[in-house]
Amino acid sequence: MPKWEYATVPLIVHATKQILDQWGADGWELVQVVPGPDGSGLIAYLKRSVA
């Protein structure tokens, strides 16, 4: 059974692609993007397998 680690990352609107590309290069997979708690930003939920 795989083991996972998780991260939540605030996304800056003008740098969303760069942020997600960097996390992806580090082996993270995007699971979901949801509105932030204050409603003005976005939060990305990511996961990656733990070896």
Class inferred from helices and paired strands: alpha+beta
The rounded Rg comes to 12 Å
- Uncertain segments are none
CATH topology call = Alpha-Beta Plaits
Broad shape: flat
Distance between the termini: 11 Å
Mean pLDDT: 95
Alpha plus pi helix count: 1
Total count of domains: 1
Content of β-strand: over 45%
How many strands, what sense, and barrel or not for the largest sheet?
3 strands, antiparallel
Name given to the CATH architecture: 2-Layer Sandwich
Summarize the structure.
The protein is α+β, with helices and mostly antiparallel strands and 51 residues long. The protein contains one helix and three strands.
Description:
The mean pLDDT is 95. The chain has one helix spanning 16-25; strands at residues 3-11, 29-35, 42-50. The chain is built from one helix and three strands. It has one domain: 2-Layer Sandwich (Alpha-Beta Plaits). 2% of the residues are buried. The protein has a three-stranded antiparallel β-sheet with strand order 1-3-2, with helices on one face. The chain is flat. It is of the alpha+beta class and 51 residues long.
Primary descriptors:
single chain, 51 residues, alpha+beta, Alpha-Beta Plaits, three-stranded antiparallel β-sheet, 1 helix, 3 strands, 20% helix, 49% strand
